[in-house]
Amino acid sequence: MNFTAIDFETANEKGHPCSLGLAVVENGAIVRRESWLIRPYELNIPKFYSDIHGITEDMVADMPDFSQRWDAIRVFIEDQNIVAHNAGFDIGVLKNALDLYELPYPTFLYGCTVEVARKVWAKPQIVANHKLNTMAAHLGVEFKHHDASDDAYASAIIAIEAAKKAKAKTFEELLARLGLRLCVFGEAAAGPRSPGRYETSRTSGLKYVDGKFVRTKTKPKPKAPRL
Q1: Average pLDDT value for the chain
Q2: How far apart are alpha carbons 35 and 132 in whole angstroms?
Q3: String of DSSP letters for 76-124
Q4: What is the DSSP letter of 221?
Q5: Main-chain phi, psi angles of 82, to 5 degrees
Q6: Nearest to 64 by CA among 99, 36, 90
Q7: What proportions of the chain, in percent to the nearest 5, are helix, strand and coil?
Q8: Domains along the chain?
């Protein structure tokens, strides 16, 4: 079970990243955690956003922007399996930042721990909902919500514990057992579609609408029984 869990915190309604955290999982265990403060594309962090994640304009004014952080970040993402809690949002933030700075797309596979949690821990029989803080409390994970490093850590734990319940040895096997899609990001996704996969590219990517990223194209999700 090898993957990298990521979490972005955003500065404003345009989805500009101001922080990124990640947790690297190897053989089913978290072996490394990293986090970065990022100067947003526009140095504008309204109080509403600061109240959520605690990051202010003063904290990131002298920090490297996303393009300057990218080389350090990319090594943890390219050609990896990526997970995030509400992955559509985090992948959308990443795509938006790459586009703003005209950076080449990395290629990677990704899945969503919200979707995983919905399959493994039924609502309301087991958990009240599948929000990250609810799932963390259910799994006994101590973390500071909306801290990018802690959120990535909690997302990684969800995937690890789900794999144990599903008796899955790999990230791909976990999603397959749950009937979920393994998503492909990057320019390499322009090739033929594979069963259970869909592509995200510059022409069929995500749009930021009403405070969230939404897909311009979707495929029906295959159904699988709950564990």
Answers
A1: 87
A2: 18
A3: TTTTSEEEETTHHHHHHHHHHHHHHTTPPPP-EEEEEHHHHHHHHS-TT
A4: P
A5: -115, 135
A6: 36
A7: 35, 20, 40
A8: 3-215 (3.30.420.10)
